[in-house]
Amino acid sequence: MADTLPPYRYTPELAAEIELRWQDRWEADGTYEAPNPAGPLADPEAVADRPRRYVLDMFPYPSGAGLHVGHPFGYISTDVYARYRRTRGDNVLHAMGYDAFGLPAEQFAVRTGAHPRTTTEDNIATMRRQLRRIGLGHDARRSVATTDVEFYRWTQWVFTQIFESWFDTEADVARPIAELLAAFESGERPTPDGRAWNELAEGERRAIIDDHRLVYSAEMPVNWCPGLGTVLANEEVTAEGRSDIGNYPVFRRNMRQWVMRITSYSDRLLADLDLLDWPEPIKVMQRNWIGRSTGANVCFATEAGDVEVFTTRPDTLFGATFVVLAPEHPMVDALVGDAWPDGTPERWTQATADGAAAPSPHEAVEAYRASASAKTDRERQEDRQKSGVAIGAFATNPVNGEQVPIFVADYVLMGYGTGAIMAVPAGDERDFEFARDYGLQITAIQQPPAAWFEVRDIEPSLDTSTWPEAFVGEGEYVGSADLNGGIDLNGEHTIAEAVALINGWLESVGRGEAAITYRLRDWLFSRQRYWGEPFPIVWDEHGPRSLPDSELPVQLPEVDDYSPQAHDPNDADSNP
């Protein structure tokens, strides 16, 4: 008999029995239910003089068959903290919810053939059972799912509050759109072209107001995945430029999206970093992410109109020998031609040694655009050799009137600055390599010191053909004077002094102005998919209008086919 008994009484079966018994007791007694401090269900005696603590776990995606090991890894930590605060006598509300809308849940439903709501609710039930089995102390009464109509009624309300607001740069705060409209109507705020507000057509007035809204609809470059039939966030795209779900090719496309105007808060975000008790390296990362840059917007004239470039070094304008546009830049189509101008170098036309006909500018640009669309922004900005194609058009350098060729290159992004740059190869190493590769002019704009030449074992000279690389230091300005006497930077100036001089001159002749730009971009947050909360917006002939609170919530419609439209995964030109 003794040989058949376990060596210890506490077996896994007994442990499970004890745990389940206590979990049933906790649920029956409402052990983890936080007493209400106010309202019709308030319990004054239970909350008297007790500090309140709110502990919220990150909502899991109910997109699979249950929790994975990473979920309790984080939840146990918050549970320990919540239990500790309870032992201190605090009134602790430990809440849990489910981030139930979105592509993962939709894709799981597509794979299983069931409606997203059915699979989502089944998965939530499984997760709730698993969380209870672990013994976590969540207040089950406060559990929500983002798919609950009662919940997304309030996300829609938040959206309308933002849609009906604008950022007042003078007050440095958001204000109601109604106040902006009143300022235009009274004449307190002038219209962009100076006409009286009552002289504008309804469509013109609506366009002006919409240009100020903190949330707006616009054509934006996005990660389009034909294989999934939807737009993806950057986090849903792998380093190889494929979808995290399904491993389909992802392409950069311009599509109409809803966008949040968070760039209005760039300076406030920067300033408020100083108020945070965070490690300095983390704050440095945040500052770099916001990426505040001072410089100038400069206008280069072309046959199709001005191309505006942003540069942090307008003092180097005399050394700008070519202009580069992002492949998605709207002026590319207006500038690119069907034939190369006489005298175009073969290197620019990509002519081949075997005598095959070179592609036309239009053909070369379209082929390059197709290649660029398959790359992520991260890939396009990697420190590698620059590539690009000439478009057979030229721009006028405003300081000296020289005609400089225009290229399209994927290392320029529409999301930064103006989507166009001026290239100064004498002062930038990658521009230097690009210019050498394409046989472009390299004009010295600052005199390197003698030591720079000595280290490179070459004779001091402003003949850049003898330079092995660009000069990226600070030296005396040379070759930086307008022959007509308009602006002269030659001589010894600090960079700040030279920038101030050139910015003043640009503004005086109407060819540019001092500007500040940010690496931070407005936040794109719409998706081409079914399983998501509807936008509380109606469209009329003049654009979007928000619905009043009395019309909320706008509920997700019931449809028979909720799967994304099937596309050829490799067809970058398909549409959602």
General description of the model:
31% of the residues lie in helices and 19% in strands. The chain has 576 residues and is an alpha+beta fold. It has 3 domains: 2-147, 3-Layer(aba) Sandwich (Rossmann fold); 157-287 and 523-551, no CATH class; 296-518, Valyl/Leucyl/Isoleucyl-tRNA synthetase, editing domain (Isoleucyl-tRNA Synthetase, domain 2, Alpha-Beta Complex), CATH 3.90.740.10. The strands form 8 sheets. The protein has a 4-stranded antiparallel sheet with strand order 8-7-9-19. It has a 4-stranded mixed sheet with strand order 13-14-12-15. Strands 11-10-18 form a 3-stranded antiparallel sheet. Helix 9 (266-273) runs antiparallel to helix 10 (280-290). The protein is elongated, with a radius of gyration of 31 Å. The N and C termini lie far apart (72 Å). The model has no long low-confidence stretch (mean pLDDT 88).
Which strands sit side by side, in order, in the main sheet? 8-7-9-19
Biggest sheet features: 4 strands, antiparallel
- Mind telling me the CATH class of the largest domain? Alpha Beta
Global outline: elongated
CATH superfamily name of the largest domain?
Valyl/Leucyl/Isoleucyl-tRNA synthetase, editing domain
Q: Helix/strand-derived class?
A: alpha+beta
| Total DSSP helices | 17
